[in-house]
Amino acid sequence: MQFRKIINDPVYGFITIDDELIYKIISHPWYQRLRRIKQMALSHLVYPGAVHTRLHHSLGAYHLMRQAIYELKGKGIDITPEEEQAAKITILLHDVGHGPFSHALESVLIEDVHHEELSILIMKKMNEEFGGGLSMAIEIFTDKYPKKFLHQLVSGQLDVDRMDYLTRDSFFTGVSEGVISYSRILKMLTVYKGELMVEEKGIYSIEEFLISRRLMYWQVYLHKTVLCSEMMLVKIFQRARELAASGDPDVKPDSVLGALLFNELQGSVRDNLALFCQLDDTDVTAAVKIWGRHKDPILSLLCNAVLNRTLFKLKLQAEPIDPVEISKRKRAIKDLFPVSDNDLDYLVFTGEAENSLYDPKEERINIVFRDGTVKDISLVDNALIHQNLSLAVKKFYICYYKPE
Amino acid sequence: MQFRKIINDPVYGFITIDDELIYKIISHPWYQRLRRIKQMALSHLVYPGAVHTRLHHSLGAYHLMRQAIYELKGKGIDITPEEEQAAKITILLHDVGHGPFSHALESVLIEDVHHEELSILIMKKMNEEFGGGLSMAIEIFTDKYPKKFLHQLVSGQLDVDRMDYLTRDSFFTGVSEGVISYSRILKMLTVYKGELMVEEKGIYSIEEFLISRRLMYWQVYLHKTVLCSEMMLVKIFQRARELAASGDPDVKPDSVLGALLFNELQGSVRDNLALFCQLDDTDVTAAVKIWGRHKDPILSLLCNAVLNRTLFKLKLQAEPIDPVEISKRKRAIKDLFPVSDNDLDYLVFTGEAENSLYDPKEERINIVFRDGTVKDISLVDNALIHQNLSLAVKKFYICYYKPE
Amino acid sequence: MQFRKIINDPVYGFITIDDELIYKIISHPWYQRLRRIKQMALSHLVYPGAVHTRLHHSLGAYHLMRQAIYELKGKGIDITPEEEQAAKITILLHDVGHGPFSHALESVLIEDVHHEELSILIMKKMNEEFGGGLSMAIEIFTDKYPKKFLHQLVSGQLDVDRMDYLTRDSFFTGVSEGVISYSRILKMLTVYKGELMVEEKGIYSIEEFLISRRLMYWQVYLHKTVLCSEMMLVKIFQRARELAASGDPDVKPDSVLGALLFNELQGSVRDNLALFCQLDDTDVTAAVKIWGRHKDPILSLLCNAVLNRTLFKLKLQAEPIDPVEISKRKRAIKDLFPVSDNDLDYLVFTGEAENSLYDPKEERINIVFRDGTVKDISLVDNALIHQNLSLAVKKFYICYYKPE
Amino acid sequence: MQFRKIINDPVYGFITIDDELIYKIISHPWYQRLRRIKQMALSHLVYPGAVHTRLHHSLGAYHLMRQAIYELKGKGIDITPEEEQAAKITILLHDVGHGPFSHALESVLIEDVHHEELSILIMKKMNEEFGGGLSMAIEIFTDKYPKKFLHQLVSGQLDVDRMDYLTRDSFFTGVSEGVISYSRILKMLTVYKGELMVEEKGIYSIEEFLISRRLMYWQVYLHKTVLCSEMMLVKIFQRARELAASGDPDVKPDSVLGALLFNELQGSVRDNLALFCQLDDTDVTAAVKIWGRHKDPILSLLCNAVLNRTLFKLKLQAEPIDPVEISKRKRAIKDLFPVSDNDLDYLVFTGEAENSLYDPKEERINIVFRDGTVKDISLVDNALIHQNLSLAVKKFYICYYKPE
To answer: Cβ contacts (< 8 Å) between D205 and chain C: which residues?
Structure first.
């Protein structure tokens, strides 16, 4: 009897796991931790359905990888069983290094270590546990494996990671315009000269994919309420760290978060991997709940605002925020109650949000025509996605406390 | 007990009819005729699900009109019960003048009369039957009613007609990328200075709507197999008419189609409205089946090819077709069997297909900002839809017989 | 490059055809004919979306067969590539013998030959054309192939035919309660002792499947308006035949239907297969349209009623129709205008409709438990589907003309 | 400009809030707390999508109430604007008294107070804050309001609570067989003699609803892995309380949970409502994470098993568990390591799970026929749901630790 587990997924129906090593990786506590990290952080404050987890997303991306490989093999592309297993493991673990509420908290909790580096460290450690079974997956992840297209499926302009998160995020938010036709795109993928490409007939689906992504960015990921709540969370942790630095003992949470915030860890991230792998959304939310009762008025104000969804105001605009407006906002608060200039920076602050439709320099979506010609999608005749549009759109915001 | 009928619709769930006059109009034989006219003509040769009818589409558009009016009234826009009823009747009947397999056959079957004119003639005739109950609907349809926005809901860049056909056609074809968020767009509609506009927050949904429409055009409506089969149908009718003109009695179908093809009708279209209202897809398909056994080899060849889906080849390209290629194709056929030059034009022919993303001159999608500013969507900051893109894209095709 | 065609299907997304023989069968004019036969006959008079075709259904059933075989092979069941191809061909052609508007017209148009027999005749004829490529498919269809479970997948209590038509019919009607979880049922199928069975974990899905089927019968297939229109169609053809028998020349349609109605065919059905394979919905509808203008008042009354959806009344009840009621209805008509007793039978008639939830004698859904025990689903502990419920439910109807 | 907020919901599309009082209630911290309580507790260990919250469910139930009232008013049922507002408030708050991981933890955390009583206490307190605006809602909730049917819509056999949770839970788990046709059921509801009833045409939809509920119970809510994890959570809290009672200081969590577990609260629940309203899933999960590092081996074993999904085994069967089996399981553990008899009860334990299809004594689904007859659904002709089936099905389970 063959090994076989089936998982219900509202997005794709069923996800099949028919490889014992893959099932063992999924069962590993470090993978199970992803159950307790929401994929979309605080977006559920706007879209109440958006509470799905990183575990669910990486299972979904695994499913799409399975489909992609099935399609490519059907077109005669050579992929060995070992490569297939490795590619599936890579995508399963591509996000395993994410901490809670990234991208907001990433730089706050663990400075100077990107989540991809953490993913690699975790994969290497698991590779030891599983007797080398992840070696090829690590090569694919770090783009050292000769068949480039396997890495491109994991991390590229048209990777299964993006395809799953756009599909899944639009599903759970209910933003139906964000829906992409992942199944058609998967059927249009091919490998040409060793690179992942899209068949000519897939051009319109790719355009739709890029436009949907643009919509998801401005309507969901950078929705002003989402942006506001996530920036407030950053402020909460800055404040907690400031209080900790000033010797306040009450601010230390009863979890691994405490050690991180207080910089008490000895050695490198690699030395503390097991500790890091205990961190999840619970620690952050539990801390925010406790700090909501903290005596520092700035900290408790910020925490209760995020908990109870009585958020600051956020204004998003095309031009940089006028310093006059910042001063005006700060003064309005000072008129209400005494607050130091340092503390005011927690109640009025500015920032930038940016998104590009398609960057032909960095990203490459190559279309292969029936006659063997290859063109970047921005150079195709009558392309929707051309040079001008590929410029990044930058918006500026001011976020400020405004009591009712 | 209030009048109330409910119709199951796979697209919207349920369609409610709670007005007796509207139910009577739906029950009219001239409306019921739309059951026998497919919305997408021969597209089902490529997309087997695309067999939905014009009756189903116009019921769907009626449902969206109901929703649109509900939303607008919820925003305080003044719409009287009479106007509401009239707007619903207008949209129900907006396509009632369509003949079978339009747009392909429109100009072939009834020359010089556009289907909109026929719709108006039919509405006027029904207005007599229903004692003037359709007068306001006719004013709205012909854009003579003072509240312009009601006409814009029926026929404009963002009308419920387009919203339904894009939604419905992508539903029944299974081209999921074509799905638009009609419900969000409806919620973003508003009336400002008497005109239908879109609220600022709806910009991304409108972009998605336009891109989806573009995709539906190139991937579905102008799909080369669809285009080919529809052009072949046109050729079939040209041939039948030619044979009729030459006195062939066998070509006359045993339906109203016969009289139309043989130009036997006395008087204007208006005089023959009842006759025209007997025409539907059945007449055309029955004629094609009979002509498939006709002794004229060109006619039977074309008919059997369409019936059995052994279609001609069609090549679609950005540049006009080279006359050299046309000659080459014709010669290839002549090499196989003797055929006159006149007859060759039925076996090798060319044409053009065109679609524009958005034409700011003709169409107007106005965005109203929170501060009362109004801008055409192509002029909004960072607009995806700008001047260059709004140019129409024209493609050229050659269609030719190629025996296996 | 491997052979590969992809067809969009709104129900399953994409249907893949990766076998040249199968593609040739699909391209055969006798298969293409199914494009012109609606799966649900006149049900669209109630459910406007229900205009999908037998071609679409058999492609869908083919897709489910492909899935079923993939799942069974994944469980280690031995199925050779030849068997896989044959099983797919069998299901593709299982309905190829259907005439227009069956089941209503089946016994009227071709007496004494069941559509399954016609399917076999057609498969045999195609087998000659394709050089014996359909031999194994015919064995499976006629249950002569040793691996019984392949026949059971085509025709049994849990075959892919039923799974597709329930899924597809509920999809196109919009009767969402009829939706079954075909993908879960397919995953629960297994082969044990050579027979198709369901794994223990699938019991609740099977219950749901049977209840959904019950709902579809009473709410859709035997909906009183659907029943009424189909019985009226039967009456139309009885009348036409009666008029033909009495020597009326005007009643003969200009299609193969004429020969059938007038019993002019020489020889057996087998001898006239090619002729039968020209019949489709168009012939019936075209005849009904022409007969709507026929001088016989009974025939034209019936035809226009079906065309314009001004149907007779139908009453459905648990008890047989009281003869007193029949007389009363007939008298009411006679009071309005003179009509012979023979003709009255076209205007007032009765009949029966029947459906059983599950018949443990005929049908067998066997559940195989983890310990190897096999039980009929009606004998499982706490079974919903037990002896009493399996009795057929019979309803009686009277259908009568009632002018407004 | 009318007040109007729109919330995206993947299940229903959009949820509209057009009443300021209702928006204020939703904005209340006690309502916002429901964001942090998962609707389906630990079911996500089996169905990874099932992480939706009680806030999302109660918004969904509110939406269905809005629809139900719209349908009933369309049928001429008299419902005043005040009653409409009150009914919406009632359903919004019907679950506000739920604690984290109910139903598992309900009796463990707050003994002797049912969540409905807590909901009433909370509604009364909010009623004070909102100046009496919730008075009618409280009357409806406690079934003291004269129009009984309003209470039946909130809490009855066919209430919008059940309709939403079945719909939502099947949506998020991906168990598509659980889908019910809420929109058809809503359209079939009516009020007759002051009671909520179902129109005759709705019988099959109701059957489907009951069968889907049965399926959801056995396949989801009482899935053995879900049952096992929830019973283990109960054991965790029993153990923590036992340790607390024995004077262990390390077991006390740094949240309101500590006070509850240590029975430190003064006064009644009513006196401690604000405290209770700080409790959510975070407190429980944070405690489980901390206890995973506790020195008591039983507590840490249980906690890590739930966190890492290395759960105990659970066997579900029709007969009570044989005491011999219990002894055998306990002995097997004792053979591995020394453990006291008291502690063994945390590692091997038994219980019962029960579900009835329909209980005609308690629940009443009345069908009203066109002639005014009213019958309980279990007494209708050919009813699927009859006396025998209405008996509750009881299953027994044993849950035991089994190291790999």
So the answer is: 177, 215
